[in-house]
Amino acid sequence: MRREHHARLPRMCFAPARKPPGSLPSLLAAVLIAGVLVALAAVPAEAGGDAFRKETTRAVRAHEKARAQVDRLRAGDARTTEVRSAERRRKAIRAGLWDALWSVARDAGDPVAVDPSGRAGRCPAARTRSRTPEDRDGDWTAPTRRYRLSAGYAARGSRWAHRHTGQDFAVPTGTPVYAVGPGTVRATTCGDGFGNQVIVRHPDGYFTQYAHLSRIDVRKGGRVAAGQRLGLSGATGNVTGPHLHFEVRITPYMGSAVSPLPWLRRKSVDIGG
Ligand SMILES: [Zn+2]
After folding, report:
1. Continuous H helices in the chain
2. Angle at CA 201, nearest 5°, toward 199 and 202?
3. What is its EC number (predicted)?
4. Ligand 1: distance of its center to the CA of 68 in Å?
5. Distance from the CA of 46 to the center of ligand 1, in angstroms?
């Protein structure tokens, strides 16, 4: 069986991460963040993907903890300064992760880093065929309809070099794929293991990825509303059959995925599973 190489982080060197901005009120938090960032920057070049992956996984977890802390403080009516400093912690972790992953993605020739509009490659010209739904402020939604949930997040299997980084929705080729929430199209690319893919940036800073599409209906830079069609599902890239691969990421780059179903549940979208 073929391996979906998209789940694998390449063995590449990367640039040192940015230092977290400003001074932090909590020394402990500063030490923790510094630990993650230093570890991300310290994995030596060619040390192998395993050490790098371990550190990026740690950074993703630290980010999610920091985000949960921001949410808790907001819900508990904490002082503005407290919320701000928690938000700074979250952003510092993300900035370090972003730099490290961007560098790896660029060196590996990941189209999201080197050709996010899909123009340089041989991507099918993305004609804007998708209309914004009437209800622009629509609720968050599932990325497709009439699906069967197949491979889940963090699943192990012969198809992935490591763990599965997204949630698969088994749907026939040609099924409409929708933006789960409002945002801006960050990338429309083709040619790697993900085949034709769309990456959307949402207002909360997270990114969603829709891969293996047969057709792309949006362009980089375009705004999309929740439920707006991004394209049609397919079987492009490294796949064993037609399905939608859906990911939620902290950055546009692979290696920063979080568990997508709990993330959607926080937006009041329950897709089962
Ligand atoms: Zn998948």
Report:
1. 27-42, 49-75, 80-107, 111-114, 260-266
2. 135
3. 3.4.24.-
4. 26
5. 27
Q: What's the gap in Å between 141 CA and the centre of ligand 1? A: 19
pTM: 0.84
Instruction: Give the start-to-end residue ranges of the domains of the chain.
Output: 5-107, 114-266
Q: Phi-psi bin for 5: left (phi > 0), alpha (psi -120 to 50), beta?
A: alpha
Half-sphere exposure of 136 (CA within 13 A, CB side): 4
Distance of alpha carbon 209 from alpha carbon 71, whole angstroms: 24
Contact 197, 161 (CB under 8 A): no
Residue ranges near ligand 1 (ion) with Cβ within 5 Å: 166, 168, 245
Cα–ligand 1 centroid distance for 237 (angstroms): 11
DSSP 95-120: HHHHHHHHHHHHHTT-HHHH-TTSTT
Cα–ligand 1 centroid distance for 243 (angstroms): 8
CATH of the structural domain 114-266, one choice from 1.10.3720.10, 3.30.950.10, 1.20.1250.20, 2.70.70.10: 2.70.70.10
Q: Distances from the Cα of 10 to the Cαs of 114, 192, 203, in angstroms?
A: 15, 13, 29
